[in-house]
Amino acid sequence: MNERFDPAVADQRWQRVWDERQCFAASDTTDKPRAYVLEMFPYPSGRIHMGHVRNYTLGDVLARYKRMTGHEVLHPMGWDAFGMPAENAAMEKGVHPGGWTRENIANMKAQLKRLGFALDWSRELATCEPDYYGHEQALFLDLYEAGLVYRKESAVNWDPVDMTVLANEQVIDGRGWRSGALVEKRKLSQWFLKITDFAEELLEGLGDLKDWPDKVKLMQENWIGKSQGLEFAFTLSNGESLPVYTTRPDTIFGASFVAVAADHPVAQTVAEGSSEAQAFIVECKRGGTTAAELETAEKLGFDTGLTARHPFSGADLPVYIANFVLMDYGTGAIMAVPGHDQRDFDFATKYGLPIVRVVATDPAEADKPFAGEAEAGDGVIVNSDFLNGKSVADAKADVIARAEQGGWGEGKTVWRLRDWGVSRQRYWGTPIPFIHCDACGVVPVPKDQLPVVLPEDVDFQTPGNPLLRHPTWKHVDCPKCGKPATRETDTLDTFVDSSWYFLRFASQPADRPFDPGVVAQWLPVEQYIGGIEHAILHLLYARFWTRALRRTGLINVGEPFASLFTQGMVTHETYSREQNGRDVFYSPAEVERGGESATLIEDGGPVEIGRVIKMSKSKKNVVDPDAILADYGADAIRWFMISDSPPERDLPWSIAGIEGCARFVQRLWRLFGQYDAGAEGEDKALDRKRDQTVAAVADDIEALAFNKAVARVYELTTAIEKAQPSASRSSAIRAILLLVAPMMPHLAEEAWDAIGEEGLIAEAAWPPVDPALLVDDEVTIAIQVKGKLRDTVTVAKGTAKDELEALALASEKVQRALDGAEIRKVIVVPDRLVNLVA
RNA sequence: GCGGACGUGGCGGAAUGGUAGACGCAGGGGACUUAAAAUCCCUUGAGCCUUGCUCGUGCGGGUUCGAGUCCCGCCGUCCGCACCA
Question: Which residue gives the smallest C-alpha to C1' distance to B80?
Answer without folding.
Answer: A533
